[in-house]
Amino acid sequence: MKRRDFIAAVGVASIGWPSGGSAQQPDRVRRIGALLTVVDSQLSDAFIRELEKFGWIEGRNIHIEWRFHAGDPDRMRAYAAELVGLSPDVILATSPIEAKVLRQETSVFPIVFAAGVDPVSQGVVDSLAHPGGNITGCSTFEFSLGGKWVQSLREIAPNVRRIGIVFNPQTAPYIESIVHSIEAAAAPARVTISAIPVLDVAELERAVASWAQEPDGAVIFAPDVSLSAKVKAAIVLVARYRLPAVYAVPAYAKFGGLLAYGPDFLDNYRRAARLIDRILKGARPSDLPIEQPTRFVLAINLKTAKQLGLDVVPSLLAQADEVIE
After folding, report:
1. Once rounded to an integer, what is the mean pLDDT over residues 238-252?
2. 61-90, pLDDT tens digit by residue?
3. pTM exceeding 0.90
4. Does one domain contain both 22 and 92?
5. Residue 190 half-sphere exposure, CB side, CA atoms within 13 Å?
6. Per-residue DSSP letters for 143-171?
7. CB atoms within 10 A of CB 224
8. Which of 199, 219, 281, 306 sits a CA distance of 20 to 30 A from 255?
9. How far apart are CA 302 and CA 179, in angstroms?
10. Residues 277 and 308 reside in one and the same domain
């Protein structure tokens, strides 16, 4: 089976999970749709286990329809229409990107996104305190993150004088605010910042190759849902050109990323489950404020640092929540 056929097959699969706990409303099985970017068993499991704490048990009083679009816009739209056609009680989305596509299909069924960067500027909600409409969810970004990314890069690679910010303009409309936060952190160290928009892996390769032609460069991969479908290719590219890089998703360090600092995404999916529990019990998304990130994780890959010839100073190592050797 070809890889894309496998992904499509997984995308329409319904995953069953172990049962346990007490039933919430045994007289009716609630249907939850899930439109996610990639298959990630850790995130899905965190979501399911949190629902179980509130008595929502797969196969007993809830049924979850999982769809994974792997960054394909056409597949995302098709799955959004398919899920809405199933008349779900609520839909889980990876980010505001999926939420916007789902909203084109329905203004009635509640939608909860698990990982959103500035959903107000994306036009997904009216405000963080009062989302309005049928969408709410969990934020994953605060502007102090820009300072931490720059600081971490400078600690592990003190000679860095140029930082490129990689993003997809189609899925990161909020990038201007992120660039400003990074520029503010980089200015005192006289580090120049450049935006590097890329749409696909081919553009990413050309951009990284071009950026690496000048010395003392590094890259920041901005929080961007489209990166999750090509992060391994990105990690291979920056390693080939020996560029220090920091990522906004802590899990990417496990794939070989040098540094990663961002919110605890497992916690985000747990909080998304809690929002869905409240909706299933009668709450309206418009009345549920956007959840703000509360826990951040710094992950360092020592093997990658060694391959790049970089020393991880004790002060940076002491800050790390996860160290991959």
Report:
1. 95
2. 999 999 999 889 999 999 999 999 999 999
3. no
4. yes
5. 1
6. THHHHHHHHHHHHH-TT--EEEEEE-TTT
7. 24
8. 199
9. 27
10. no
DSSP 66: E
If asked whether residues 236 and 157 sit together in one domain, one would say yes
| Same domain for 133 and 191 | no
Alpha carbon distance 29, 33 (integer Å):
13
For 4, residues 6+ apart whose C-beta sits below 8 A from its C-beta are 70
Domain extent for 272: 3-141+264-287
pLDDT tens digits along 89-141: 999 999 999 999 999 999 999 999 999 888 988 889 999 999 999 999 999 87
Determine whether 251 is exposed, middle or buried from the number of CB atoms within 10 Å of its CB (0-12, 13-18, 19+).
buried
Looking at the predicted structure, is the pLDDT value of residue 17 above 80? no
Regarding beta strands 245-247 and 217-221, do their DSSP bridges make them parallel or antiparallel, or are they unpaired?
parallel
What pLDDT, on the 0 to 100 scale, is given for residue 27?
66
216, 75: one domain? no
Are 49 and 197 contained in the same domain? no
Mean of the per-residue pLDDT values of the chain:
89
